[in-house]
TrEMBL record:
GO terms for molecular function: metal ion binding; transmembrane monodehydroascorbate reductase activity. Its cofactor is heme b. Residues 41-237 form the Cytochrome b561 domain. GO terms for cellular component: membrane. Residues 1-33 are annotated as: Disordered. CDD domains: Cyt_b561_CYB561D2_like. Keywords: Electron transport, Heme, Iron, Membrane, Metal-binding, Transmembrane, Transmembrane helix, Transport. It is a multi-pass membrane protein. It comes from Penicillium egyptiacum. InterPro entries: CYB561D1/2, Cyt_b561/ferric_Rdtase_TM. PROSITE patterns: CYTOCHROME_B561 (PS50939). The keyword Isomerase does not apply. This is Cytochrome b561 domain-containing protein.
């Protein structure tokens, strides 16, 4: 009979009970980047693989559905939007497990690069759908309304991120002032992810999807659950001020 580090045998009922009570996806924030690990492992460690499965399933569903139809001015809108969302998930996953100052600096730079490209894609998707709508009513469906709110939050989130990290002294007065809003930027980032997922789910109920593309609601919901579970299980509560 082997003893654990606490002196309790590993097959002792108390030890077995604690293992039985272990959450299936681990405790929040369990995954931490080790000093000798390359930062790109953060994209797959812990439940990141669950989130990766979800976002790639979602992208595949969108791309397969869109490319199964004749190309039109509308075509780039969902392709660009799903690609931007894929980049945003990568941006979150690569930064979550960082702990040391060097890891955080490297992670933030990569996070920023992913997010910058995603914002460009999101804005392009917005411009394309607005041009495609022409004189037809805009922002009348749940997807359209959620989409507009989401685009606004995306731009605000990006602006705050740039200010707090790159321009804290010039805009906020000091580096410490920038650091004080980090937790709020993280909070709003996770809220934004929920908003983006709701927008994608609402897209399955649009007339165009129901009548032409036929992207299944159940498939999108499975992908969304995987994304939220994978990202959510890696949230470090202390980084949110909890």
């Amino acid at each position: 009979m082997m003893a654990s580090a606490t002196g309790i045998p590993q097959d002792h009922p108390a030890t077995i009970e604690s293992r039985d009570d272990e959450p299936l996806l681990g405790r929040p924030g369990d995954v931490t980047q080790k000093p000798d690990e390359t930062i790109y492992r953060n994209l797959f460690t812990g439940t990141a693989s669950v989130a990766q499965a979800g976002i790639w399933i979602l992208a595949a569903l969108v791309w397969q559905g869109i490319l199964s139809q004749p190309l039109s001015l509308f075509t780039p809108h969902p392709l660009l939007g799903s690609s931007a969302l894929l980049l945003q998930v990568q941006a979150a996953l690569i930064l979550q497990p960082t702990t040391t100052p060097q890891q955080k600096r490297t992670g933030t730079r990569i996070h920023y690069s992913f997010q910058l490209l995603s914002v460009v894609l999101f804005v392009s998707a917005f411009v394309i759908i607005e041009v495609n709508k022409g004189s037809h009513p805009h922002f009348v469906s749940p997807h359209g309304i959620l989409g507009l709110v989401t685009y606004i939050v995306i731009v605000l989130q990006a602006v705050v991120g740039v200010i707090q990290y790159f321009l804290p002294v010039r805009v906020l007065g000091s580096v410490d002032a920038g650091k004080r809003i980090y937790r709020y930027h993280r909070w709003s980032g996770y809220v934004l992810l929920l908003l983006e997922m709701a927008t994608v789910v609402a897209a399955t109920q649009t007339t165009y999807n129901v009548m032409a593309i036929h992207i299944p609601l159940w498939g999108v919901l499975v992908a969304v659950i995987l994304i939220l579970a994978g990202v959510g299980a890696r949230i470090k509560k202390h980084k949110l001020g909890l």
